[in-house]
Amino acid sequence: MTRSLISPHTPQDPTMSTSPRPLFAGIDIGGTTTQVVVCSDDLTVLDRAETATPAREGGRAMVGAALDALAPLLARVPGRLVGTGIGAAGVVDSVNGRILVASDSFRGWAGFTVTAAVEDGLGVPAYLDNDVNAFLYGEVYGGAVRGETDVLGMTLGTGVGGALWTNGALYAGPHGAAGEIGHIPGFGELPCSCGGRGHLETLASGRSITARYADRTGHRRTAREVAEAAGRGDDDALAVYRAAGEGIARAIVITAGVADITTVVVGGGVSRAWPLLEPFIQSALAADPPVSGHPVRLVQAALASDAVPVGAAARVRGELGTGVRSTA
Ligand SMILES: [Zn+2]
Predict the structure, then answer these.
(1) Which one of 9, 41, 127, 286 is most buried, counting C-beta atoms within 10 A?
(2) Which residues have CB atoms below 5 A from the ion given as ligand 1?
(3) Mean pLDDT of 97-104
(4) Which residue ranges have biased composition labelled Polar residues (predicted)?
(5) What predicted TM-score, i.e. pTM, was given to this entire model?
């Protein structure tokens, strides 16, 4: 569906042949790592870099680190930067480009106006999104659910994030919280990192897989180590991943009942155990299907760590009205 902005230049318009190609930058500011990409108009990643996030040093330092990582890319990729998208963890005001609520791993981040700092540094328009929303933009425009219109995006990382794409557009809701499937009750009684109880995040985040395995065995293992143990037939590890998969399926059925989504795309570090996780999700979905009678398509995310920065770039491309433009 996406078509290049760069139309073939014609003899009638000789300026087209000399104008540099438009470039879009994408930035993903995470709690430990900041990823940056430079994309062409069709969202192909032309160059990428990563750097440590100075999360305790305040917003200006975090944006500064991202721009420092971006500078050499912009110096060596031919073209002209036209916009920058930023994805960031936490609750964001995407209209004013400001962080509203940040986790306690950040200092001086809540209240910081990210887009103003990026625009000052780069001299082009900037847009800010929640990182899970950016992840879903990336997967819809260039990943596993390209061109689909009704999608739930889930990220299984340190926490569990969710985002909703309905009728061909992101639906953020009036408070930016639509699709936050990781934090609704009904998934047991365990206390959640958000202060609530019985949320999907208590079963399906990386941190929770570690905790649930420790509850059963007394041994602390990373989510990846628990997955490896499951692969060796460790019953406790299998039970932890089965509970995660059943919880994810329940979240999918709830979302399908509310928003009639057709597809779910799952990313984040825990999703790397897809061969282990997917059968548990699928069997739970088969046992308790959506009320519509239509099965929901379940796919693993395709862009890995590029999803958030590419999605942020896709958002700015959309906002600037370039790209995805019919040449007809
Ligand atoms: Zn929660």
Answers:
(1) 127
(2) 183, 192, 194, 196, 199, 201
(3) 88
(4) 1-20
(5) 0.88
